[in-house]
Write a structure and sequence with these properties.
four-stranded antiparallel beta sheet; Vcp-like ATPase, Chain A, domain 2; Rossmann fold; alpha/beta; 22% helix; elongated
């Protein structure tokens, strides 16, 4: 065992989560519990056989099929959470983090929460000293996101609010605001009021006509450095002597608008 393997953060323990990978299509996130087993169509493994071992090991199931045991990534958890509305895909979430300048210590307002997928991504990046204030006006979505965030253990970095953002935000002088709701242009005035000077607003919207309305409102409230993207991701099929694009792709998911808060011009 190497020195890095001796690090307790890299050791599978009773109660920790693991990612069990059979192949590119069959992968499961499961909780390790002493005395119990993990079952799939290729047999089962005893959790007691992996407790105390480093993440990244390979082990055989009861049917002599090899599986790999990894430490789950954030994206692995998010792919397994329940959701009641469209989720933000990783290709869009990555741009929101970068162009929104969301980093450790950032204070961020988000609306709407939905399933809590993007909320969880944002929280994992602002920790340990930052915080996410997430607004949702649908009770069922609020309940779903509350349960998902509890499962992911991110309660300390997130404050969920069953509250309509159209009424305004409680927080002031935040570093960034992320809008993912049907009429983001209606929230622009509140976003301007709650952002610090030079703070960022990131807006996810699915249609062209929403871009027009939102852009007009951003200009009206003197936001600057406005840009808009559509990102298309194409995965490759990885097979020996047959590497090519996958026949199915996730095409249009939405457009992203980014802008910065400006303050009044200083008079000479």
């Amino acid at each position: 065992m190497t020195s890095s393997d001796k690090n307790t953060d890299n050791i599978i323990s009773d109660g920790s989560y693991v990612l069990v990978v059979l192949n590119e299509h069959k992968r499961w996130v499961t909780k390790v519990e002493s005395g119990k087993q993990f079952h799939c169509h290729k047999g089962f493994i005893e959790f007691d056989e992996v407790i105390g071992k480093p993440y990244g090991i390979r082990i055989f199931t009861s049917k002599s099929t090899a599986v790999s045991i990894y430490k789950p990534l954030q994206i692995d958890f998010l792919s397994k959470i329940s959701h009641s509305s469209q989720i933000i895909y990783p290709k869009d979430a990555g741009l929101i983090l970068l162009y929104g300048d969301i980093k450790p210590g950032s204070r961020v307002i988000e609306t709407g929460t939905g399933s809590g997928g993007l909320t969880s991504i944002l929280a994992s990046y602002v920790r340990p000293n930052g915080h996410i204030y997430s607004y949702e006006n649908r009770e069922q979505a609020f309940k779903t996101s509350t349960n998902n965030i509890k499962k992911l253990g991110l309660n300390d970095a997130i404050t969920l609010k069953l509250q309509d953002a159209i009424e305004g935000f409680d927080e002031e002088d935040v570093d960034a605001i992320v809008l993912d709701l049907a009429s983001p242009e209606e929230i622009i005035p509140h976003a301007y009021s709650s952002l610090r000077s030079s703070g960022t607003v990131s807006i996810f919207i699915p249609t062209y006509n929403q871009i027009e309305r939102t852009y007009h409102e951003l200009k009206e409230y003197d936001f600057g450095d406005i840009i808009c993207f559509e990102t298309i991701k194409r995965e490759l099929q990885l097979k020996t002597n047959a590497i090519r694009p996958q026949t199915r792709i996730i095409g249009h998911t939405g457009f992203l608008i980014f802008a910065r808060k400006r303050t009044k011009m200083v008079q000479k």
